[in-house]
Structures are given as C-alpha cells and as structure tokens.
Amino acid sequence: MTYNNPTQPNATQSHPTHQQDWVYPQDSLHLQSPLKQSSAPTIGVVVPIYNVAAYLRRCLDSILAQTYKDFYILLVDDGSTDTSLAIAKEYVARDERFVLFSKPNQGQSSARNVGIEFFARKYEHCLLRQIGGGAVQEYSVESSDHNPYNIQRVYINNAHHKNPHIQSNSLESTQSPSNPKSLDSQIDPQTPTEDKADTTKALQLIAPQIDYIIFMDSDDYWAQECLEECVKVSDGVDVVWFALTTINDGKFIYQGYSENSHTQIQKFKHSGLPTNTQVTAQELISHAKKEFLIFAFQGIIDFRFLQRIQLQFINDIYSEDVFFGLMLFSQAHTIYLLDKALYYYCINPQSSSKYDTNMQKQHLPVFIQELYDAFGNAYDAREYYAFYSTLTGALALIEFIQSHPQNPNIQMLKTNYASLLVGWILGLLPSKDPWHIFTSFPKLAPYLTKNINLGKLSGFKKFCITHPRFLPLLRLVIIISRKVRDILKPRKDSTKTH
Q1: Where are the beta strands (DSSP E) in 7-144?
Q2: Whole-prediction pTM value?
Q3: Does position 386 have pLDDT exceeding 80, yes or no?
C-alpha cells in the first residue's frame, strides 16, 4: 500500500496533470545491459542526492568498487543547489549502469519513491526530448501519463545509443493519424538552434529488470563486499537486513554492541534473537517489542515482494524509515538477519547542523523553508517538522493497521507501539500549528485503548488528544512538568550523596 500525505498543502510540490496528447512511439531505450550472461540476481540501487558534493564521490566510488557487479544505479537529484548534480553527471559518463534523474526538492522519501517507480517501469511512457549530447545524453521530460514527482531532466550514458544490442531509436517529426500535433509543435521555440538537430528524438525509457532493490544515502558508503554478502543469503527471503557501522565526523563510534547503537541487528543478537539466519516476521516483531524496526538503506528487498505489497516511503516527512520498516517487516514472510557491518553510516558536520540550536534557514530543506516564516527561526521550524512527521507517520500506520485486520503480525504493531508513538508525539507538541495538523489528533483514538499508559497525567493526555483545542494547554502542562522535574532532580541526586 502506498502511503502519501494528503494533509499538507505543499505549494512547492508540483504534481501537474498531463494530458495524454501524444501517441507514444514503439521504439524504446532499453537500459538492460547486453553484457548480462549469468542467471545471478540483478540489484537496483537507488541513491537520493541533495547538497552532498563533499561526500558524493566517496559514496558512488564505493558502489563501483563492489565485488558483485550485476547492478544498476538510479541517482535522483532532489533539487541540489551545490555541485552535486554535476558530480552525478560525471558518474553517468563513466559507467552506463548509471541513470540520473533531476527534480525539484521534495524530500528524501520522494527521491526513494522515484527509484521504486523507475524500476517498476512506471516511467516508460515519458516523452523525452533530447537537449544535450556528448558522453552523457540529456533529456527533458516533455509529457507523461505518470510523473507525480515532476522529474524534469533525465541523463543517460551515450553507450546506450551506440550499442547495437540496445534499441535507441529516434522518432521523426511526423503527424500521427490520431494526433495532428507534430513533435515539432511541442518544442519550445526558444530552444537554441544548435540543439534543434536532436529535438525530434522521442524515447520510451525502459528500466532494467531487477530482482532486488537497495537504497543508499549519498553521504554514506558501502563495504566492498556489501552486495555480494547480501546475494549469498538472499535465496528464499523477502529482506536481507545487515548491520552497519556509525561514523561521527570521521570517528568510528558504533562497532559491535552498544546500548546506544544504531545497529539493531547487534541489539537483537545481544538480547537473544539468532542472527546470520532466517527469522519470521512474527519472531522479529515479537522479539523487538517496543524497539522500532527502522529500515531504509540497511539491506536488500526482494523487488517482487515490494511490488506485491505496494509499499513506498511516506512523502513529506522526517523519520520515514521508522514507519517504512514497520510496514515492510510486518508483511514479510522471512527476513535474513546478517550480522555483518556492510554499511558506513556517516554523521557529518552538515547532518549534525540539523540539530544545532543556531541553525539557519538555509539548513532547512527547500520544501519546508516556509515554516521559517511561521516560527521566526530555523530550529523551531525543524522541531515542528519533526512533530508533523511523527504524527503523519503514526496516522499512516493506523490506516495501515486498520486495513489489515486479519494479519496478526500487523495487528501486533498496535500492541507494541501504541503508547510509544503517542508519547513520542506528545513530547514534540509545538507552540504553533501552521500546517493545521492538530485537527488530526482524534484519529489517534484507535491507539487510546483502556490499557494504554501515557505516564503521568495519562487521563488528561487522552482527553486532549480527542479534544484538540486543549492541546496548547497540554503543551504548557508538559513544559511546566519538565521544568519542575529538572529543578527537583539535582535535589534528589544531592540527597543520595549525603
């Protein structure tokens, strides 16, 4: 099931409705490599890119250095304002397995979802007009019956045009019997004359067929054997979930087990769940209890399974990996827990600035910068976005749980995460509500069962959730409660020392 957010009137996210006024050509640009001879699984790699020029080469070099070679890479530039797009083009020129899409900034979820849709061949009816040549062929997306994320440019290695085994045919500018408009009439008259020779090329972009999909953040990198180790244990499982190593400003901080580790595989192992073996969804969820099953880039997913359950990332939110992981694993049959750190998760100064109280407007993603005007500072705008994201994700999870009443694994999510999610949301209550999300609070009612415990003032909290106009009062009570706790805590500590 695809979960998008219907509540936010996001003016920056343009989802134009295209009229199908073009008879699409039968000639197609197939990106499947003619060099593939083996029956080994093919992996689709999706890399969202946004202002990571300082780290992007390290990321893409680690992909090219993989010991396993049967993969294709879709790079999705999400409106970068630095040199990230230019760097991405370099890699398209270097290796024909790279394809690059460019679109407006809409967040990491949108870029990952573009990858899912690309490999599902949702974009094969795009009308592409060639506007640039050379080692990298550049196309503008002229029209499409499916372009929800407003992809504007597509960049493809020129080898796809030169290789005789790959169909790369141009469609001459002629009038179709069912469409009197010629392709020439769709071309902007301001197009430079030097590009006119190529403007009559219209292509269907056919994505390669893949067996597994994996996501990668563009400021992180892989161990050389990452894909190879995944493929070794992939037979018969829906997800291979591997461990990772966290690096903070160049220092290794999470290797092996740690109470604060981001490596959930090692936490599970420490608490008794077997690793380096297959487990069922029921075993995983039962064992995790209140431990969120966070997943985005930590492994490979059987692509047929992902298409069957029709799962995408929730758009327009932060912490999308929390909700994606819960929905993914609760629908899986078997998961392989691979206790090998194959991914280097990097916390760099740029990502750390997200939590800096002195952060500036430019540190905010473009699609949420309107919140800066509402709050007058970037930090509170970011905090509101975190609240909005958590509530939106929780509401999507409720919808997901309600739509699968007969699935015991999915119903277990309600038991495990109800109080945790509601408490998380209440802890983030903002001073203002510019996106008018407070009105959605009553939808949390399915989580407010009699046995749910929200800690102190539990009854008052439940009342405010079902009566949103009292939420500002609840926020004030929570703030006062925290201040009183902070004042009394040193006294308790000092009493213990005497």
Answers
A1: 28-30, 43-49, 71-78, 98-103, 127-132, 136-143
A2: 0.83
A3: yes
